[in-house]
Amino acid sequence: MGSNxxxxxxxxxxxxxLSAEMEVLLFWIFSLFYIFSLLANGMILGLxxxxxxxxxxxxxxxxxxxxxxxxxxxxxxxxxxxxxxxLYWCFAITECLILxxxxxxxxxxxxxxxxxxxxxxxxxxxxxxxxSWSCGFILALVxxxxxxRLPFCGPREVNHLFCEILSVLKLACGDTWIxxxxxxxxxxxxxxxxxxLMLVSYMRIFWAVxxxxxxxxxxxxxxxxxxxxxxxxxxxxxxxxxxxVPESNQQEEQEKILSLFHSLFxxxxxxxxxxxxxxxxxxER
Length: 285
What we know:
globular; mainly alpha; Rhopdopsin 7-helix transmembrane proteins; 9 helices
């Protein structure tokens, strides 16, 4: 049996089962969304780099979020299957941690405004950013190594839009329990853990805001957190559904749509959310 065994070295992505006309239409729509995402995040990154007034911790982390969003969309939309599984997890975990760091930045700004520049100095910001990227890279590398050790001898069709790790694991011939345990551990570390930290931060933020006497002061304080809360809700909400909800065959098509939204629409919506908030703040000034 071992001598006659043929190993699968390539996979075929099933994607959506659509007509040729619909595929062409969606190709142009998604291409426009992808281009818009790159342009919007690129403009935010350029403005932050060129405008000295934006050289503060909040926009420093926002620039990292823009880089992640451009990389996230570029990882899934073009055909980069050789690196897809590794890069997808790397950018996903890094974005989770960057969002946590941004919530900590808002917590310090609102709850400890007099010590903000001391606590969130550039050394601390750099360490937090480097740590987020390093954790994303290392955890994604662990997934890639564990995936490469598995034998694939059955079907070649991956029922997904890209080489998503859970869909690929279903095709493995060997025991995948280690992979499943690591995925669960990473979900706890990269989803549940960061979300819990952000909830604690925002509970303290809201408690501090409620102590502000003036309604205008409370409104301005809440408005500084609104865009971040919207991005967190979109990112973590979809990720929790895809990776934490028990599987079922009926959910496969829905998960494809959610994954597409997660990797394409989120990077496009993030700059719109943050620029809309900045326009409101500029009008108030």
